[in-house]
Specification:
- This protein has 243 residues and is α+β, with helices and mostly antiparallel strands.
- The chain has a domain of 149 residues.
- The strands form two sheets. A six-stranded antiparallel beta sheet has the order 5-4-3-2-1-7, covered by helices on one side. A three-stranded antiparallel beta sheet has the order 6-8-9, with helices on one face.
- Strand 3 and strand 4 form a beta hairpin.
- It is elongated.
Amino acid sequence: MSLALTRRHEREGGFTLIETLVALALTGLVLSALANITSQWLPNWNRGMDRVQRSEALALALQRIAADLAAAEYVPANREQRQPLFDGSELSVMFVRTAFGPNARLGLEVVRIGETTDREQLVTVRSRAPFAPLLPAASPSEQLRFGDPVVLLRAPFRLSFSYAGPDRIWKSSWHEVGKLPAAIMLTVRDAATERVLSVSTVASVHAEAPATDGKPNGTGQNSTDGSKDGTKPANAASGQGGS
């Protein structure tokens, strides 16, 4: 009886210990190969996604900066000055525009876009201050209190500005000029290689002159008959009474 039972157990199907070990070894080889492939592919995929996200953030930042600069207005700092409140350097620009944004108050605001340090890194920040007539004796930077900072660009990107008038001659600064620049070039560089990126663009300023054309004494506004000094032309004056 015991011999027949033993033979019946031998005929039953199943895995032996050796077969189980071989199967486990093959499974381990397959999983190891998949892990190697994943370890090589996943970092590349993450770096690609990071580049795409940085490129999208950079494009949005440049669009916002260009829209800001295009909205610059010809507004003097006070009644004594005729030149617009605009100061541009290679790494920063300050100008006046109509207040815009969900928390902005009605009126004008002074906007500054420039490079500063945040957590030991160079960043491009947009800040603003309400516009009010400034004292002629002090510089605008001493009187304006900028707030609401918004980081637009972070490392490895650096932004620089160039300015041009209607002649399209580019300059690295625009200080105390009697008009606004016609165009502002936004140049983006890689901080590590100093390579100029293809996303660099040019913003056109819509307002280059004040809304009303006048002389400093205030007598230069156009009259209804087309003269610029408020007096009638000689031919018009001689023509009256002679008919």
